[in-house]
Fold this protein.
Amino acid sequence: MQQSRADPLPTERPLAATAGGVVATLLGCLLLLLPANWVAAHFSHDLNYTLVPTKWQMLADLRESVDWLVVGDSDGLHGVVPSLLEQGLGGRSVNLCTLGYLLALQDPWVVETYRQRLGPPQNVVVVHSYGVWPRPWGDYTVQVMARVPLPWGYWRRLRPAIALTPREAWELWLQRYVPLYARASAIQNRVFRLGPLARLDLAAQAEDEEGADVAAAEPVPLTGSPPPEVRVAPEDLKQGFLPARPGTAHALQQRLREAHAKPPTGEVSPPNVQALRALMDAAERDGFELWIANGPIAQAMQRDPAVRAGLDALDQSLLRLTAGRPHVHFLPGRLALPDTWMQSPDHALPAGAMAYSRDLVRRIRATGVSSVGPAPR
Amino acid sequence: MLFNSVTFAVFFAAFYVLYLAGRRSRVLQNVLLLLGGYLFYGWWDWRFLSLLWISTISDYFFGLAIHGAETEGRRLGLVRLAVTIQLALLGVFKYFDFFATSAQHVLQSLGLQVQPLLLHVALPVGISFYTFQSMTYTIDIHRRKLEPTRSFLDFGVFVSFFPQLVAGPIERARNLIPQIAAPRRITVAQVDAGLFLLLWGYFKKIVVADNLAPIANQVFNHCTQYHGLDLALAVLAFTFQIYCDFSGYSDIARGLAKLLGFELTINFKLPYFARTPSEFWQRWHISLSTWLRDYLYIPLGGNRHGRARTYRNLLLTMLLGGLWHGAAWNFVICGGFHGLRLCIYRLIEERRPAERPPDGSLRALGAFGEWLLLFALVNVSWVFFRCQSVPQITYVLSHLGPGCSPGTLSLAARVAFYTWPLVAMQLYQHVTGDLLALARWRPAWRVVPYAFLLLWLFVFGAREAVQFIYFQF
């Protein structure tokens, strides 16, 4: 085509490279990225990132056996106050609950690791949210699995054994050893909070559009008086209880709307069935008592007939799964707390956690199992 | 198999180990390249491998037949047949439904109701690239610029060479086949340059293009909700996105090829520094623009038959170039716009009086003005490319302006955030005139920018493997 009167075009001039130079460059990059990787690993205190290793460290730090080992997801993390369990049931307890992203898989893994270190436990209490039981295996499960500080391949050695696809194993490896990659979202969030970058979150905007149907639904009325001020004992924090921080009424409303829009179906996902069976087998084999409890819910949930029906169906599923196991005690039903006592549809604020823990004690005692001694004064 | 996927990383790692292990045998390496190419292509849909095989088999035998033909008429007939087969593949799989529905619309506007037969076939990935590449073989043999290869294996590797199979550069047979046929040697300089191209190509794709894509998509897909400056920023975002997406692919392809001991055509030479449309096409998708020049514009007569024919040839070439990009009217309009721009610039150039160019700052100012004008026009051309309908094109172009929304500043900040490393690097490449300028630094110095690029890849790189824009062509 036509000739231009332009500047000379750029080109690629040959490089005078040496093998040593190439290797030095690769090693130099590695040397520069290692400190960045270290910084990323220690970058801020992001609960999702630090919680799992913290709880496993608590397990590793246990010097003697406990009477009540509490495992489960964030419902238990924010809901079970160890000192109340001890007051109501006697003995010593520890709350090793983490996140629902790990499904119920972490429960048998924690119990087995505990058994390997300290012998069989006496009583294990499992607390899960209604939302965790149907949750399928997902990418986030692998990401959180990477945070379990056990030697590589623990998921194959512990029961239930999990077979990861090569892609999942690669993702887990990246999440575990390349925090620069694993923590990218946290770092990005920090960067994008700077100045004008913060004002337009396109991803959030897109999510808002997707959630427009939910947002447009009728608002869920919140009931209940403000929760009483309660003081959380430092001992409870040391024993693994994490008080939920109050959120905004708007956020709670939004979460409730989402829950109403997608009520539970009574399904228990295959990996959760697998995990529950492994845990029940361990209880039968080692002779410990296993208590399976539902986390608390907001009263707004209980008022919705569709949600209530779904929760009842879930109880039926869990009853069927746990039937015929003498050491396994499923505690159907769930404590519905005033909406204002909740951070989210299933996360209790500290006052709610105390009510929930007392209710849990009452339910466990009501089973009349002999391992539960007389209530201490 | 996308370059920016774990699957490809595993594939290439395994492939490269085998390839290096077979370094003593060129034939073995070529067998590996052939099988690797088929695996790479078949990963999308193994059924489309048949198209690759049709291209390979037909052009291999046509090449031999054209070379062996005794009369010029027979040579011409054979090359026409060979080209027709390749164009037929394109026509059936890429353009049939487009032309059928377009004809239906025309007939409908005339009051005739017809139900055209539509094939509804999925577009085979990269078909425009490998058919054009394959055509260079038979045409160059016909032009006596190339001897046919006797090795079917070598020709098979030429058509299915996986680094550039699905999105270019569109290699000439006379560049690639001799490399495939020659004893192979991977030099340290090739590895060094190849690693740089891989790093820079992945950065452009994963950090720049894939992060600008949501910004451009958000605004273009909901353009009526945005103000004038938002639209302008989205156009700018897409301008950088498409460049980084496509040139990123080319860089990765060339980097991989270098690691395998091959040299591919440089496909991009800082196109956004161009000051005239013709210069732009000497810098943008060079392998396609030179293909169109050598196999379409010049055979049409080029600029040899008077002004009117020259303008006609320019327009026709660019219109067909637009259509090459996709079976949709927006691509045709885009091509037409590029053609018109070339004609207008040429017209002005012809009528400009020959005067001494100004010196110093005036000259620099003039050059800057030329650059700015062309950059603005390039941005406009991408509106045709990005929009999916004529009303959308009209809306965006008619609403570009200075109007701001509460999100404008943030939009600008995001575009600036993701593009500043690109702009800095390209300015440096422009000033040095060397696309490998950074790779030329001493190892002790270059580790800093290299590590910076890697850091950004880790932290800001898009996680989902997003398909390259040019795969659809």
User: Anything to note?
Assistant: The two ends of chain B are 16 Å apart (CA to CA). Chain B touches chain A through 65 residues (CB under 8 Å). Chain B has 17 helices and no strands. Chain B has two domains: 6-183, 189-472.
